[in-house]
Each structure stands twice: as structure tokens, then as C-alpha cells.
Amino acid sequence: MNIRPLGDRVVIKRLEAEEMTKSGIVLPGASKEKPQEAEVVAVGPGGFVDGKEVKMELKVGDKVLFSKYSGSEIKFEGTEYIILRQDDILAVIE
Amino acid sequence: MNIRPLGDRVVIKRLEAEEMTKSGIVLPGASKEKPQEAEVVAVGPGGFVDGKEVKMELKVGDKVLFSKYSGSEIKFEGTEYIILRQDDILAVIE
Amino acid sequence: MNIRPLGDRVVIKRLEAEEMTKSGIVLPGASKEKPQEAEVVAVGPGGFVDGKEVKMELKVGDKVLFSKYSGSEIKFEGTEYIILRQDDILAVIE
Amino acid sequence: MNIRPLGDRVVIKRLEAEEMTKSGIVLPGASKEKPQEAEVVAVGPGGFVDGKEVKMELKVGDKVLFSKYSGSEIKFEGTEYIILRQDDILAVIE
Amino acid sequence: MNIRPLGDRVVIKRLEAEEMTKSGIVLPGASKEKPQEAEVVAVGPGGFVDGKEVKMELKVGDKVLFSKYSGSEIKFEGTEYIILRQDDILAVIE
Amino acid sequence: MNIRPLGDRVVIKRLEAEEMTKSGIVLPGASKEKPQEAEVVAVGPGGFVDGKEVKMELKVGDKVLFSKYSGSEIKFEGTEYIILRQDDILAVIE
Amino acid sequence: MNIRPLGDRVVIKRLEAEEMTKSGIVLPGASKEKPQEAEVVAVGPGGFVDGKEVKMELKVGDKVLFSKYSGSEIKFEGTEYIILRQDDILAVIE
């Protein structure tokens, strides 16, 4: 069973604190909006979404930074995921 | 008698708790916005809606996750349904 | 004398409670937004409305569900009507 | 001397209560937004207004229903008029 | 020295009370938004303003009604002017 | 070293009070929004800004009126400047 | 490991106070919105972002002024960065 996001949405899995430390990303305490690190597990088809052309730049496996206050959380077969729009992804960590 | 949604709207039927358990989706308590699981029972024609092209990606029978606070509830021949825009559907469960 | 709605507007006549019962639609008490059942009595020409192309999907005689808080109420030759935009019509009952 | 409205605006003259009675329109007290009956006395040229194409559907002499809270009131040579956008006209009474 | 407005802006000079009386326009006290009478003294070039095509319909010398709460006031060589967008001009008095 | 504004932004230098007096512009105390007089010192390239075509109408040396509450102030090599969008410039003084 | 921003986003590194002094930019205390000086360290691909064409005008190494209240702060391998949209960059210092 899979989660297939619609339109310009992606499904991501938040990386745990120990994974965060290994990746070298530390979020400072005083920032206005703290981005979160996550891994992309599913990518929507993009195309015309709400009348605007959206091309998907992300692929499954990408490590990404996303805006903390965006998206919807779900728990699926024991793991928590977040469904959000590609535009809420700030950057890819390579 | 049928409900035929207009434009980019779909009619969905919320899945009951026991169905939720079988599908493996569990919604965690602390999430900001809890998506809901439902089955699509009718799909609008799409086309030009409010001057923007909307292509319908959903079909009758799809299991979907939708945003809890969207749409209008109705009771029809003893069953509750929700009418909402396709854009309020987050993902399809396959 | 007739009411001819402009642009993408339609004129509808709310169905009475007894008619509601016959149609099988019951509106549950706890819903966030209760749609209302009505019959379409006049349909605007559509076309370019506010610079966007709107095609009218409704016709006179359609039974429709509409969003309760939309439109303007008028009383015309003893009967109450509501004038609202087609986009405020959720679905057609067939 | 004349009032020539710009763009998609029209100038209308509110119909008096006795005229309202003759026309058969009665506005119920409990409505959320009470439309008003008026006669069109001047129509703007339409065309491209704010970058969007607006075609004027109204003509001088039309009896119209308009949204009460829209437009600007002026008094001109002893008569009160309202200047408002065509989109604030709900319907034509024929 | 001149004031040359940019884009879709116009410069207008408010007409004094005595001029208002001569023109026959009286603004009633209870109106929601009182338009003001003024004379156009400078007109911007129009063209593409904020990505939308705006054609200037006004010319220097036009007597206009404008929305009271729009625009910026300046005093220039002893005379007060208002700089506002053409869309804030309601109508031309001819 | 220079400040090169991006997109449709311009850099302006506010004119001092004595310069204001010489230019004949006096700002009345009771106005809702007082425009300010300034000189343009740098002009962005314009072009497609946020998907909309913006053509720059201003050039270095223009005396302009701008809206007081717009833009960002900086101090550069001892002089204060304001960076703002061309659309916040009301008019050119010639 | 690198941070690759998506769409029209850029990654910048704030310049320290001593660097600010050397560059000659001083931010006055009473300004409404204080722009900040920073160096660009990564630039997104631009292209169609949210259905609008965005061309990237910035390149790695540019010294820029940016709006203080925009973007997301991250700490990466011991250095703080800010991820923000190109449109939040006010100007380039050359």
C-alpha cells in the first residue's frame, strides 16, 4: 500500500535528531522560522495545478529542508509522514 | 437519485474507524492539521473552473486523504458525505 | 415579469422541508457548513465574467445543493429567491 | 450636464418604495444582504478594466437589483444616484 | 515646473465648495462613501502597469468624481493636489 | 562601490527640507498619506518581475514624489537612501 | 555536502558587523525596516515558479542587501545561513 500525493504535493519523512546531527544541520534557537530536515518518500505528478504549471524538481530519496509550519501530518504503517506542497520545500541537501 | 458535483468538486464518504485501522492509517494526536481518510463516490467534470484549467485526477472508488477543515457535509439517503474541491484532497492511498 | 441574472449568477428557489424529506437529503446538525437544497429558476449567460471564462453548467429546473452563507435573498411576487454565483452551487441532485 | 462613468461602472437611480410595490419586489426583513431595486441611467464603456476584459451587459433604462453595500452615492441636480461596478449588479428585472 | 504622474496615476485638483454648487453636485450627509469633485491637471502614460494593460480614459481639464479615501495629497506652488490611480476615478461630469 | 537595485526597485535619496522649500512642494499637515520628495540615484533593470512585465520609467537624476510608508532605508557611505519599488513612486517633478 | 535551493530561492550568509563597517553600510536606528547585508552562497534554478517565470539575477559571491524579516535561518556545518526568495533581495552592492 502506498501514499500517492496529488498535484504538486510531496510526502516526506522527518529525519530523527541523530540523523540531523550526522548531516551537520543544526537549527539555531533564536530563528524566526526553523526549517526541518526530511527525506522525500513520494512525489506528486505536478502538471497544471490550480491553473498554474508546476514542474516537480524533487525525487524520492532527496534530503530536504522544509518550513516547519506547513503541511499535514499522518501516521502510516507505524511511521509519521508529512504531506505538503513542493513550494514549501526550501532546499535540497546534497 | 445521485449527487453530481459541479466543476472541480468531488463527493467523498468518510471511512469509519474500523476501516481506518484496516488501512493502516493512524492519525497522531499532536498534528496541526489531521487529514481524514475517505472514499470518492462522485467526481465533477473539471474543465475551466473560475477561469483556470482543472483536470480531475481522481476517480470513483479512490481511497483518499483530505484536509479535515475543508468542504461541506451532507446526509443523503442515510449516509453522510462531504463535498469538497479536488485541491482539498491531499493524496490517494493505493 | 422575470428576473434575469447577470454573468455567472443564477436565481434559485429554496425547497421546503417537506420537499427536502421527499428528496432524501437530511442535513446533519453538527456540520460546519450546511448546504441547502434548492431549484434553479434562472441562469445567467456566463461568458467572460471579471475577465475569466465561466461556462454555465446549470439549467432551469436543476435541483441543487448550495452553500448556506452565499448569495442575496429577494422576495418576488410572493416567493423568496436567492441570487448567487454558479460557483456557490456545490452539486446537482439527479 | 451628464455623469459619464468610467470603465465597468454604471450610474443607477434607486426606485422609490411606491415604485418597488408596483414592480412586485418585496425585500424580506431577515435576509443577510438585501438587494435594492434601481434604474440604470448611465453605463461606462467597459473594455479592459484593470487588465481584464469587461463587456457591459446593461443598458440605460434597465431595472436592476443591486447589492446594498456597494458603490458611492452622489446627489446630482436634486436627484440621488449611485455609481457602482457592473459586477455589483445582481440581476435585471424584465 | 510640472508634476508628471507615473503609470496609471492622475493628478487632480479638488473643486472648491462654490464651484461644487455651480456644478450642481451636492453630496448627501448619510452616504457611506462620499465622492469628491475635482479637475484633472495631469495624466500618466498608462501602458503596462504592474503587468496589466491600462488605457488612460481621462484627459487634462476633465471634471471628475473620485473616491474620497483614495490617493495622496500634496501642496504644490500654493495649491493642493491629489495623486491617485485612474481606477479611483468614478465618473466624468460633462 | 555602488548599490544596484534588483528587478523593479529604485534607490532614491530624500531631499532635505531646504531643498523641498526651493522646489515649491509643501506637504499639508492633515493629509492621510504624505508623499515625500526625493532624487533617484539608481534604477533596477525591470523586465519580468514576479512573472509580470515591468518597464522602468524612471532614470537617475529624476526628482520624484514617493509614498512615505514604502521601502527600506539604508545608510551608505554617510548618506541615507531608500530602496523601493517603482510602483511606490507617485510622480516625477519636472 | 551542499545546500541546493529550489525554484527562486537563494542561500545567503549574513556579513558580520566588522565586515559591515568595512563595506561602508550603516543601518540607521529609526528605520521602519532595516535591510541586512549578506553574501550569496547558493542560487536556485529559477524557471517557472508557482506558474510565473522567474529569472535569477543573482550569482554566488554577490554582496546583497536583504529584508530583515524574510526567509528561514539554518545552521550548516557551524555557519548560519538564510534561505529566502530572490524577490526578498533588495539590491546588490558592487
From TrEMBL, chains A, B, C, D, E, F, G:
<comment type="function">
    <text>Together with the chaperonin GroEL, plays an essential role in assisting protein folding. The GroEL-GroES system forms a nano-cage that allows encapsulation of the non-native substrate proteins and provides a physical environment optimized to promote and accelerate protein folding. GroES binds to the apical surface of the GroEL ring, thereby capping the opening of the GroEL channel.</text>
</comment>
<dbReference type="InterPro" id="IPR011032">
    <property type="entry name" value="GroES-like_sf"/>
</dbReference>
<dbReference type="InterPro" id="IPR037124">
    <property type="entry name" value="Chaperonin_GroES_sf"/>
</dbReference>
<protein>
    <recommendedName>
        <fullName>Co-chaperonin GroES</fullName>
    </recommendedName>
</protein>
<keyword id="KW-0143">Chaperone</keyword>
<keyword id="KW-0963">Cytoplasm</keyword>
<dbReference type="InterPro" id="IPR020818">
    <property type="entry name" value="Chaperonin_GroES"/>
</dbReference>
<comment type="subunit">
    <text>Heptamer of 7 subunits arranged in a ring. Interacts with the chaperonin GroEL.</text>
</comment>
<dbReference type="Pfam" id="PF00166">
    <property type="entry name" value="Cpn10"/>
</dbReference>
<comment type="similarity">
    <text>Belongs to the GroES chaperonin family.</text>
</comment>
<dbReference type="InterPro" id="IPR018369">
    <property type="entry name" value="Chaprnonin_Cpn10_CS"/>
</dbReference>
